[in-house]
Amino acid sequence: MSNHLTLELMTPEGNLADSIQAIWYASAHSQGEQWLACDGATGLVFPVTGEILLDDKPLAAPYAVQETSTQASKVTFSHDAQFCGIRFNPTVLSELKRNAHPLLAEQSLSEIAEGLQENASLAAFVALISRHFTDNKNINHSNRHSKHLIRNLIELTPLETAYQLAPLSQRQLERQVKDQCGVTPKYFERIYRVKLAKQAIKDNPEMSFADIALECGFTDQPHLIKEFKAIMHITPAKYRKLLKDSQTKQTKLILR
């Protein structure tokens, strides 16, 4: 995550993978802040120790719900902070709510928070979550068409092509995605294009922004800069500089 923070991440398999894309645990070494990229998904965050703020608002125990992220969010934390979370696949949180999934019961979430106070670790957190996903009977999968469309957008399938690959009409899909996620398919397309550009900047430090724009489906470099700043709250150039500064600091620590 950053030089201030250690992040442990688990990508679920089996029953968990149908609903959850990531389970994570973070512990701070010093006071700091970190920008989290948006992905159009939702989540749950459990503060364990220390002070944690999301977009300058304190995250109060026992847990906080992260609604659909449409822009980058800033996490600020104290030197002793420990916090962990669940990142749901897009469309899933609304599905779990409709089906009264046991994970989202107030008692279940409180028990998870209490368990973390006794044993704060990624392994313990995964175990606390997994007990609520022994089967998928509480999910009726009425969101399968929306998930299929979004999966195509994640793979950068053009939106019009993604509509054509789906068994429902464009209007039906637009309505379903907006109802289940709070944002339109068009906005998902923007999010994932920026996400791809972010990864390209990270993987290719010397690549020109014009070439990155072309590779990631933007009309030109100004279009890349405008979209990147709107969603990430930072320009591509600033993001590249932060990456280089971070790598320089890490190199200095290794040489000491």
TrEMBL record:
Gene3D superfamilies: Homeodomain-like. Keywords: DNA-binding, Transcription, Transcription regulation. The keyword Transmembrane helix does not apply. The keyword Nucleotidyltransferase does not apply. Residues 143-242 form the HTH araC/xylS-type domain. Pfam families: HTH_18. PANTHER family: HTH-TYPE TRANSCRIPTIONAL ACTIVATOR RHAS-RELATED. This is HTH araC/xylS-type domain-containing protein. It comes from Pseudoalteromonas gelatinilytica.
